[in-house]
Amino acid sequence: MSALEQLQQILTSSDVVHKVDWDEISSSYDVRFPTDYRNFLDRYGSGEIEDMLAVFRPTAGTDADPHARRTSRLPTDLLDLPEVDEWSDARQGELYEPADVMVWGETVEADVLGWITSSETPDEWPVAVYTHGGEWTVFDCTMTEFLLRLLTGQFEENPTGIILFGMGNARFTVG
Fold first, then answer.
1. Would residue 149 be called left, alpha or beta, if left means φ above 0 and alpha means ψ between -120 and 50 degrees?
2. Proportion of the chain above pLDDT 90, given as a percent
3. For the whole model, what pTM was predicted?
4. What are phi and psi of 116, to 5 degrees?
5. HEC profile for 20-57?
6. Which of 35, 82, 110, 148 is most buried, judging by how many CB atoms fall within 10 Å of its CB?
7. Nearest Cα residue to 105 out of 146, 149, 158
8. What single-letter DSSP state applies at residue 33?
9. Range in 33-37, 46-50, 92-96, 110-114 the model is least confident about
């Protein structure tokens, strides 16, 4: 059973089907997004888990509201701040840099959720979490695996500052 299928057993939402023009998005971003993320958005859309964790969607063309929270690279003005280049594991700091991060979500505690996009293969992008006021931690899993492990408490410790860790069943609200 895939991570998305397992997630669907504990993460409820409306049965609304969400269509994304992935060809247009890939062209606009000049990147192909991971399969599990595309499948998640096709199933759930963008929105929030228990009003605590937001999952963004990419936008393109006329859909690109500059004020909307959307999947994107870290803003350039942040990349120059030394505290944004702090890593929980010094080896990760040698391998990655904040410019490699594509943000797909955030928490109410201002944790940033993204992928390290340094690989040419999007399905191999690990998840990176920047805890508010802290550092980046890289998790070798997909976005849906990360959400599943967060909700079921399968990490050694809570990777975020929110109480979803180990919650089990949760509700996804379309944003």
1. alpha
2. 73
3. 0.93
4. -90, 115
5. CCHHHHHHHHCCCCCHHHHHHHHHHCCEEECCCEEECC
6. 148
7. 146
8. P
9. 92-96
